[in-house]
Design brief:
- Helix content is 0%, strand content 51%.
- The protein is globular and about 40 Å long.
Length: 119
């Protein structure tokens, strides 16, 4: 069983930065891939970035060069560093964990953290 808790969201001006954290409980977190998703009002949840158990990273096109995903397995935590934020990045951000990076239906979800970018 894995529990995920996101933190680090907030209100920031366009061009600013935030770092989100996804803290996990569970002994085998190191074996899981972790993805960061976001959902804006009236829109579907979408995958933003993902990191495999081995540290391989992948990003959706609209955040490449601005967001960086990383993991610290000693602390059971995955981070999402978000730079050059835009108003369209405003959304609830969720982390999810899955043993096989099956992002259509991850094994576990966090509760989400709100990110609001003002223009």
């Amino acid at each position: 069983q894995v529990q995920l808790i996101e933190s680090g969201g907030g209100l920031v001006q366009a061009g600013g930065s935030l770092r989100l954290s996804c803290a996990a409980s569970g002994r085998f977190f190191i074996e899981y891939a972790v993805g960061w998703f976001r959902q804006a009002p009236g829109k579907q949840r979408e995958l933003v970035a993902a990191i495999s158990s081995g540290g391989y990273t992948d990003y959706t096109d609209f955040v490449k060069g601005r967001f960086t995903i990383s993991r610290d397995d000693a602390k059971n935590t995955v981070f999402l560093q978000m730079n050059s934020l835009k108003p369209e990045d405003t959304a609830v951000y969720y982390c999810a964990a899955d043993r096989f990076a099956g992002w259509s239906k991850p094994d576990y979800w966090g509760q989400g953290t709100q990110v609001t970018v003002s223009s």
